[in-house]
Amino acid sequence: MDPLDWKIAEALEEDGRISFAELGEKVGLSKSPCWNRVRQLESDSVIEGYGAHLDPAALGLSVHCQIAITIHFDAHADFEAAVLKHPAIVECHTTAGESDYLLRVYARSVEHLDDLLRYEISKLPGVQASSTTVCLKTIKARGPLAKWASQMR
């Protein structure tokens, strides 16, 4: 990526709905070359996609938590397949340390979270143990990556 690509990535990360004309003006390109560069960034998988950021609380999902999961050694494939199908699990990461996975889950209430933990997440294939951390307040979410990564070059 050259400096212009970094500027385009930063601008799109800030506002994914910006027009190509506005984007080009912001980074110093005309509309067509700007469009070509964005398409190339998409083709190179720098830009993974576009979408709306939804507020979980506005959707009735006011309880946000992270769940550290430890599973049986031979259950990774089955566990991961089940996680991909479970609608309450919005993120899943493999980890190094005491647990094997870290899940991000949203629930309607503490009671709903309790049900999810007892009757669904604990019953996923291979689950041996879990530790849940309820998030009280989000200070920062979805921080910009392009600006940070461009500083590391």
Which architecture name of the largest domain does CATH use?
2-Layer Sandwich
The helix content is 25-40%
Q: How many separate structural domains?
A: 2
Q: Approximately what portion of the residues adopt beta-strand conformation?
A: 15-25%
Describe this entry's structure for a reader:
With 153 residues, the protein is α+β, with helices and mostly antiparallel strands. It folds into two domains: 49 residues, Arc Repressor Mutant, subunit A (Orthogonal Bundle), CATH 1.10.10; 79 residues, 2-Layer Sandwich (Alpha-Beta Plaits), CATH 3.30.70. It is built from six helices and four strands, in the order αααβαββαβα. It has a four-stranded antiparallel beta sheet with strand order 2-3-1-4. Strand 2 and strand 3 form a beta hairpin. It is elongated, with a radius of gyration of 20 Å. The mean pLDDT is 95.
Key attributes of the depicted protein:
single chain; Alpha-Beta Plaits; four-stranded antiparallel beta sheet; 20% strand
What is the compact description of this entry?
With 153 residues, the chain is an alpha+beta fold.
Q: Topology, pairings included?
A:
Elements: H1 3-14, H2 20-27, H3 31-43, E1 63-71, H4 76-85, E2 89-94, E3 101-107, H5 110-120, E4 127-135, H6 146-151
Antiparallel strand pairs: 1-3, 1-4, 2-3
Helix pairs in contact: 1-2, 2-3
